[in-house]
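## retry 2 of 3
previous attempt timed out at serialization; input unchanged, resubmitting
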Amino acid sequence: MDRNTFLNQHWKSYPAMPADCKAAGRIYRLEREEGGLEISLIRDNQEQIITFDKAPPQSEFLIEGDIVAIISATEIVLLAPNKSSLPTRTYDKDILEKWNRYVEEVRHFFRRKGFLEVKTPSLVVCPGTEPALDVFATELKVGSRTEKLYLPTSPELHLKKALALGAEKIFEIAPCFRNGEVTERHQPEFSMLEWYRAYDNLATIKQDVIDLVQHLVKVLKFEPPRRILSYSVAELFKIHCGFDFTPETTKQELKELAQKLGVDVHSAESIDDYFFLIFMDKIESQLHGEDLIFVEKYPPYQAALARLTKDGWGDRFEAYWKGLELCNAFHELNDPQIQRQRSEVDLQKKQESQKEVISLDQEFFQCLDAGLPPSGGIALGVERLFMALHGIRKISDISVFPK
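## retry succeeded, writing output
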């Protein structure tokens, strides 16, 4: 009798877990010798070796990859046969345990500081208006009603609605979705930590970042950042490009600077493109090592949802550690008229770059019109900070199911 005949005619298909089981798992290795049998089982990432002086009945039909239960020294039950190779994925229990501990400590940090955790929707009318981002769209159908909805690129708009409704110190670890992004540092689905402080500003948010990193390195037993450094965008352009950057720096000036520096800008169209290409090539590549580095005061066209400073810079910062961009923080814009203007500009940029045109969230603007208090807010990549702490280079190494 061969294995197929055994499975089709003699095996009791997919039995329940035996109550009197002594051991169980997937067969990692089988060794048959002189009538005996040695089986190595893998369960919960642990190996267990079972030795039989005499091979149990029907064990001759077992192969590596089968899932079995050991009942006694004379009985093995086949729970699920190996009929196909597993997907090329890895279940790394050690990484998952570290991830769970890390997320627990992040939550503990904010709860200890008096923040309230909020849950925002994963189906939204506006996923975010950032011109460079591609989105995932779907459709809600309820009877004769249909509505186009999106997976959020960030929970930002709904968290700000909560601020307008009366929340003051809130945070969320939210699933976020960005289409067209699969690299060593990007996945189309990832976790974003956002927190906001109503009636506050960017300085407090910056201290939160420092405190969070220091808390995690202490409780998880990692080396802290060597130094904490802060630079304005203008300072970095002066240091690395020898260029005097101002809020009035033009697209033509950046184009000429790129040519002088040998930066490939053939794909650039807007002033944002020229800024990004120069910044990534000549500046961001230098923001590595053991220092926690804050980059502050961005050009006004990079202000996004941030206020402008009195001298014309976007009042926001990004933080880098171990070569990874960790977060993006804003002294939040709460002027509804300026916010509408910027959002319309973003949508125009999307249309010009032939990205999907989306609708604005009118409830968000209703909240702005009703009054949003001065606030500081930040979006931090949860996987990015975990990667920095553990020295992991590929975001796909954290997930069992990366794209």
